Amino acid sequence: MHHNITYEFTATIWQYPSTNGWVFVSLPQTMAAEIRTQIRWQEEGWGRMKAKAKVGESIWDTSIWYDTTHKTYLLPLKAAIRKKEDLVLGQTIQISLWV
After folding, report:
1. Among 18, 66, 71, 81, which has the minimal tally of Cβ within 10 Å of its Cβ?
2. Alpha-carbon gap, residue 44 to 2, rounded angstroms
3. Cα–Cα distance between 80 and 86 in angstroms, integer?
4. What is the b/e burial string over 71-99, where b = at least 16 CB atoms within 10 angstroms of the residue's CB?
5. For the purposes of burial, counting CB atoms within 10 Å of the CB of 41, is it exposed (0-12), middle (13-18) or buried (19 or more)?
6. C-alpha 41: how far from its chain's center?
């Protein structure tokens, strides 16, 4: 699978409000609306869409998830990436995303 469209954005890292909740960044709503308009057909179950992400020097295969509460896609930041890139909750980071 190849990813054709590149998105660049900045976002603040936040944690889902539950015990050991996942850590995410939210895509800007305008960007999410554009993705849903253009390539929603690529979504799998539960609004999941395969993607590739880059933060700092780290590039990894992942998925973004459409969250109806936030009305945007969420990009999970796994612990290994957060540790490698010294990322902390509340930090604003630059992200490249390929979908």
Report:
1. 18
2. 16
3. 10
4. ebbbbebeeebbeeeebeeeeebebebbb
5. exposed
6. 18
pLDDT in tens, 54-93: 999 999 999 999 999 889 999 999 999 999 999 999 999 9
CA dihedral 6, 79, 93, 87 (to 10 degrees): -150
The sign of the torsion formed by the CA atoms of 60, 63, 66, 67 equals negative
Concatenating the DSSP letter of every residue in 61-91 gives EEEEEEETTTTEEEEE--HHHHHHTT--TT-
Task: Give the pLDDT confidence of 16-50 residue by residue, as tens digits.
Answer: 887 678 899 999 999 999 988 887 677 777 788 99
Query: Which residue carries 């849903």 as its tokens?
Result: 36
Please state the φ and ψ torsions of residue 89, each to the nearest 5 degrees.
Answer: -55, 140
How big is the CA angle at 59 (ends 6 and 1), to the nearest 5 degrees?
60
Helices (H) and strands (E) in the chain, counts: 2, 7
Structure tokens at 6: 């590149």
